[in-house]
Amino acid sequence: MSEGLDNLKHIVVLMMENRSFDHMLGGLSLVMENGKKKYPLINGLTGSESNPDTKGAIVKVQPNAKFQGQLDPDPDHHFPGVDLQIFGGAPQGPNRVANMQGFVKDYFTQTNDVNRSHNIMYYFTPDKLPVLSTLATKFALFNGWFSSIPGPTICNRAFAHYGTSFGQVGMDIFYILDNTIASVYERMLQAKHTAKIYYYDQQSSTMEIVNLLKNQPQLFATYDQFIADCASNQLPEYSFIEPCYNDHPGPGGGEILASDQHPDHNVQEGERFIANTYNAIRNNPALWNTTALLIVYDEHGGIYDHVVPPACTPDGYFAKATDTGTGAQFNFDRLGIRVPAILVSPYIPSGTVVPGPEDPANARIFEHASIPATVTNHFLNGDAKRTVREQQAGTFLDLLSGPMRPDSDIPFFNLGGK
Amino acid sequence: MATPSNAIFVPQTERGSYNPNRAAGALLKAQTLHLREALLKHLEELAAVIAIDPKSLNTEGEVSAYIHRATALLHTHSTKPPRK
Predict the structure, then answer these.
(1) Which of A43, A81, A145, B56 is at a distance of 20 to 30 A from A221, taking alpha carbons?
(2) What is the distance between the alpha carbons of residues A310 and A265, in angstroms, rounded to a whole number?
(3) Mean pLDDT over residues A270-295, rounded?
């Protein structure tokens, strides 16, 4: 084993909401230094990617993304909408080809405004997102981390907890159809390990709801407790963090902003939340040296990405045509759209880029089932009943391959600014 | 720990972002339905415990089982909101 793996005691996963890779990090590929690409291995944007709009005009990607006010109404990210985004409106059938040409057309169905439908092609320049861009270039960035399902939040988040959504492709309450598949938290507790889901506060609560909250309320704590647990060396072996999902009054009349980055919530507040989470680990040397932090987005939120989602091993479930809304059954044999994913640890060499589909010979594909797969492999030696999908999912702790980096080489976020 | 070379400045969120009157999206509406479903579990458990006549409990084992179920319910519902 590597020094990093030998020392690893904690895995922390922070799952944000509804932004695609290209929207948040695609601009890194356009950064130049001395006449060359500064980050040549990152599979971001070239600047020439485009989609047709409903009038037939070609709409290129543009560096015009704003923190808020641009993606209202919420871009479609339910199963039929994502199908249109991926296949450009081609009729169902085995021979259709994914082309990522339906994003603008699909956003038009929300906006009914051709000009506003172009917003779906906007991306952030790296200077706008200092936290995400810094972490992506100073630690490990995954070129090939995909949402688990070409669909919305709830079913995608289920993959992070169970390694499957038990056939669910929507937002409905999902039920565990196989009681032998335990959540990763239950697996940990049953094996006398420690695990917790930290939600922001009771006004925001959790998206990992029915099956976990009603059966395992002891699994949950608030984000304040996460910060306290980091400071007091009480962090569980596995932690899953949920951002704040809505704007609501704080104690004493304060204002609590949504930090999940779900459109149309302010992206800057999410940046600060990511930085705060990172700093809580970074500020405690004992924790920093023994923790791997994964920052990942649950799904793309309907926003453009240029990489075609790859096929995957079916997990044994299927969604009926009446449930997919596309007129065709879905066999869970294809991943959802690519999302930002960054692994942070002092044992990861700066500037690590994990190759994805752009490098077929070396490609490593990840999805949210990679989370329980990695946790279960590391802490439980793989000893749990798991879905085929989770068994096949890539794991990522081998990226802790380097020697411990000096403190001067590790970024620190100053949140005190105006 | 932080030095000028590795400190990254993170700006404050833009003023005027706070809007609790924003229309709730599909995700938040789904969250309320899921929470309601979770509450039904508590309701069922509460009804089951209330249905037990305490006068029918004779042994320490029976009493302790009742106290366990009742306390677990009361403990959950009396949990104070988290500190901010």
Answers:
(1) A145
(2) 30
(3) 98
Instruction: Return the CATH number at A180.
Output: 3.40.720.10
- Does A398 reside within a domain? yes
Number of domains in chain A: 1
Q: Are A389 and A369 in contact (CB under 8 A)?
A: yes
Q: Confirm whether A135 is domain-assigned.
A: yes
CB A236 within 8 A of CB A194: yes
Determine the number of helices (DSSP H) and then strands (DSSP E) in chain A.
15, 15
Residue type, A168: Q
* Paired tokens of A65: 């993304």
Q: Which residue of B has its CA nearest to A258?
A: B18
For chain A, say whether B43 makes contact (Cβ under 8 Å): no
Domain span at residue B69 reads 26-77
pLDDT number for residue A21 = 98
Of A57-66, A187-196, A201-210, A368-377, the range with the lowest mean pLDDT is: A201-210
The tens digit of pLDDT for each residue in A24-83 reads 999 999 999 999 999 999 999 999 999 999 999 999 999 999 999 999 999 999 999 999
Supply the pTM of this predicted model. 0.94
**DSSP-H helix ranges across A174-290:** 184-190, 210-215, 223-231, 267-282, 285-288
Q: Give the pLDDT score at B83.
A: 44
Q: Give me the interface pTM, i.e. the ipTM.
A: 0.88
* Closest C-alpha to A306, from A347, A344, A357: A357
Residue A22 sits in which domain range?
A: 3-47+128-409
Domain assignment of residue A276, yes or no: yes
Q: Is residue A418 part of a domain?
A: no
Interface test mutation site (partner A, options B13, B14, B83, max chain A beta carbons within 10 A): B13
pLDDT score of A208 more than 90: no
Residue contact B9–A202, C-beta within 8 A: no
